[in-house]
TrEMBL record:
The keyword Signal applies. This is SnoaL-like domain-containing protein. Residues 1-27 form the signal peptide. It comes from the Eukaryota. It comes from Ephemerocybe angulata.
Length: 173
């Protein structure tokens, strides 16, 4: 039961990263004015790579959820997680800000990739006594994002628990 709750909580945390319904948000630029949903095509892939790397730095490395959202997520979210029943920027912020501030939450092995309008963050998520976990748990995570211009507008996630006894010595990373 604890494991089911933890998995559901983790799926919710990552899935809330699902991103913006662009049609509702193009009328006003995101706070900070960094992302541009109408970015011109020249050098766009490189700018999306830079945006995803900066998003990852703010969001996971610095745990500054608000700054990451203000720069790269313009509004309502398109979510693809079966564990999340409600979309919305504020729903995401309300959940993610305290979750990432939890002292039991950490990430490592972070890699960011982007191309052809999509990006992937691949990392290890560690929960030790936080977010309802008893003991510790580690997950391999792949967050997949879709861009419009340099704004993140859609999200999918894949989570796999790391047991520590995998047959493959290079499993996950």
């Amino acid at each position: 039961s604890d494991m089911r709750f933890l998995h559901s909580t983790l799926a919710t945390a990552l899935s809330i990263l699902a991103f913006a319904n662009v049609m509702e948000t193009l009328a006003s630029p995101p706070v900070g004015g960094v992302c541009n949903p109408n970015a011109p095509p020249g050098n766009l892939e490189k700018r999306q790579q830079e945006a995803l790397a900066d998003f990852a730095r703010l969001f996971l490395a610095q745990k500054n959820v608000q700054a990451a959202f203000d720069k790269y997520i313009p509004g309502q979210y398109i979510q693809h997680s079966p564990a999340v029943a409600q979309s919305g920027r504020q729903v995401a912020l309300d959940f993610l800000i305290p979750s990432l501030a939890d002292p039991g939450f950490s990430t490592s092995n972070l890699k960011a990739f982007a191309g052809e309008g999509y990006g992937i963050l691949h990392y290890k998520m560690n929960l030790f006594g936080g977010l309802g976990a008893t003991g510790g748990i580690s997950l391999a995570v792949a967050d997949i994002f879709r861009f419009q211009g340099t704004c993140i507008v859609e999200h999918w996630d894949v989570l796999q628990q790391i047991q520590g006894n995998e047959a493959n010595p290079i499993a996950f990373f």
